[in-house]
Amino acid sequence: MRYEPMPPLSLLLTNYTVKNNVYALTFYTYADATAYVNAQDGEGRYASIYIGSVSKGIKETTYDGAKRSSHVSWLFRSTIVDTALFRVIQPTTKGFNRGSATLRVSYGTIDSLVSTPPLFPDVVGEELQEAARLLYERGMISGFPDGTYRPNERISRRHAALMLIRDLQLTLPEGYVAKAQDVKPTDPWYKEMAIAEAYGLLTGYNGKLYPNGYMTRAQMAMILARVYANVYEKPTTNVSFFDVPPSHWAYQAIDTLFYNGITINNPYRPNDFVTRGQFALFLKRTLDKK
Fold it and tell me: 267, 289 in Cβ contact below 8 A?
């Protein structure tokens, strides 16, 4: 069983107002279940106090100290405390709490604490964040309606094709009709699959393109090596992979990706399915070479 770490609970200060030394703080939160905002004074002298709940997903909530009850409002008064600590905590099935990193709000330097919410809160790691932003700015991805990218999910063949189509700015040739048996004009994804077939982005097998199927890492290597043949340098050496012998049907494509720094993994795991995060990284490294 493969372990995939859960994303951390996010808590950012995105805005604030102050009146008569009483602060209203706007917090950005991201949680995978209903959670609570906990607060205490900056010196830890008081017991933690729940100051509100946040729903699952992405949310910005304003906590106005002037409208809070007296046992909580002191946390928002700069005349009482210089600093307050805030934290999102989430109950688990065993009764324990999984918490985010503590957000320390110092009222004297509050301007320096205000930050912009992340593009996709579930994308962690500097290079993956850079990849997601690059693809987003190029119009290649938009994420899910809930504001997440879901990097650990497998990417479908049609979603991968759509990203390539958007990068290459391909359009459906006039009069072209998809030949694949599993792509019908009534399908919501008909247009992108017809474009992918017309330009050879996806070749499929058994007369089908399998738009909702997943790609293995070997299949992805073949697709990228074919689509970006004019971007990648031709290998001058052959890598000895632990799990991809030179006789493997995708060896040349995988070797090309490795030689160009698109993949750095050895073993390569050719039969593993590609995740949305992995595909974003491969595309980002490819685009950086253009």
Answer: no
Instruction: Annotate 270-281 with DSSP letters as a single string.
Output: TTSBPBHHHHHH
Residue 264 has which token pair? 């750095």
| Average pLDDT value for residue range 226-245 | 95
How does pLDDT run across 97-148, given as a tens digit for each residue? 667 778 999 999 999 999 998 899 889 889 999 999 999 999 999 999 888 9
Percent of the chain with pLDDT over 70: 95
28-40, pLDDT tens digit by residue?
A: 998 877 888 999 9
Give yes or no for a contact between 126 and 115, defined as CB atoms under 8 angstroms apart: no
Phi, psi of 142 (to 5 degrees): -135, -10
228 half-sphere exposure, CB direction, 13 A CA radius = 26
Compute CA distances 47 → 50, 72, 85, 259, whole Å. 10, 11, 12, 57
Q: How many CA atoms lie within 13 A of 175 on its CB side?
A: 0
User: Of 279, 252, 38, 7, which is closest to residue 120 (Cα–Cα)?
Assistant: 7
How many residues does the structure list for the chain?
290
